[in-house]
What we know:
This protein is about 35% helix and about 15% strand. The protein has helices at about 1-15, 105-110, 160-175, 195-205, 230-235, 235-245, 255-275, 285-300, 315-320, 345-360, 400-410, 415-425, 440-450, 455, 475-495, and strands spanning about 40-45, 50-65, 70-80, 90-95, 115-120, 120-125, 135-140, 145-150, 185-190, 215, 430-435, 460-465. Helix 4 (about 195-205) packs parallel to helix 12 (about 415-425) and helix 5 packs antiparallel against helix 7 (about 255-275).
Amino acid sequence: MIRLAAMLCSLVLLALVPAAPVAAAVPPPLLIPGDEPTVVTEHEIRTADGRLRYQARAGRLPIRHDETGEVRGRIYFTAYVVPSADGRPRPLTFLWNGGPTVASLLLHTEMFGPRRLEGDRFVDNAETLLTVSDLVFYDPVGTGFSRPEQAETAAEFYGTLGDFAATAEFIRAYRARFGAEAQPLFIGGESYGTWRVGGVAELLAGAGIDLEGALLISGGIPGSQMPDAFSDALYVPARTAAAFHHGKLVPELMRDRDATLRQAVKWVRDVYRPALERLEGLDAQEREAIAQDLARFTGVRPELIDRSTLVMPNRTYLRTLFEGDETRVLNTFDMRLFGAEPNPPGRARAIAAYLRGDLGYATDLAYTGLEDGYMPRPGPDRRSTGSRWDYNHVEITPEMMARAMGGGGPPGSQPWLQRAMRADGDLRVFVAAGRYDSLNMCEGNHDMVARLEPELAGRFTNRCYEGGHMMYRDEAERHRLAADVRQFITAAAEEAR
């Protein structure tokens, strides 16, 4: 039996050694039965600061039952590490996307990683965050190469609270496995991933693990618990910008976009939001005036505004700006675009080749999200992980789900991050939003922070970018975002030392 186990371990190791001679696989010791080796490769790129040599790690860490040590799932990660230039521990940043069951490919291959995807090929990323921080890109169970260990353990990961717990445990396990506990710790997420940031921050604070900073990208500030009237009102400036971009505003509002936005924001704060907060008390004349102004600032016909609610749901607006033209439905993530953003041919192949070839992770597992749908399955189609998601952090009402389905975001956000900030007086937060993102609100983020106690509010950095949900797809904004995040992490890490 011992000889057989040794042979099996050898076969696993051989399967993960990259075929290309670019770099050698140097897996860490298999300390516990059931562990998988991590593939380590050496690389070099050109950045805006010159040449950068780094080590890449690709592998899966087990998520274990805390009492028995039994493996419940395996989480795939891609990490990038640079030796410290001055002997002090470098910052360490864990990054993920949203979904809630989406792999970390966007932040990894389009924004922060050392190699950036342009069309269907990878180039050196001159603005990579790796210049100032080691990076770990995290794929939650059910995405990428991450899997539940058994079918019956899947439900432990496909829910809000289980997702938070698994992510926090992964961070603990990674830092322990690679001796990274002394590195200043940062976490960041995009879209629903901002929820994961908040929940994980609270768990880390409860465990006494210092967290220096959190990045909230295109997800607002979860847990601010603003009334629906707040969100409905603060969605308007993004729609004003989109209508201006498409030339759909009245002539006097088409002269100067910034001036028009200032008018819209002032009206939203002074008139529209207060009106929605006392909706039941409005008379017919007030409702008519609100509807006329709302149409004026968003580019739709006044007749399309519901006088009973004075609100146009997000998905309705996307279909209504170019009323009756199904070829001109605004893109959810970037309202300057129509329909879905194109997916360049060869993108999936390029990413798979990068992971299995350049990084040497030569697995035969399919990368969920890129390589789906090949295997025929008997019986009914398997439900997606997203459709099985359990928002188990609060009781979800039908009204909450209806609002979410109308484009209002996931239901029942809680003040996880704010509680973490109150427990950890050093935790700082960076918030990024895109001007043309239908799911976010630049001015709303500022107004949410303004409602917090001053001690918390002073630890937020808010930025608005001239892009969509993935604002980094605009080259100039990618440069701005990269510089802003580098500055945020460098300053927060220095303050923690």
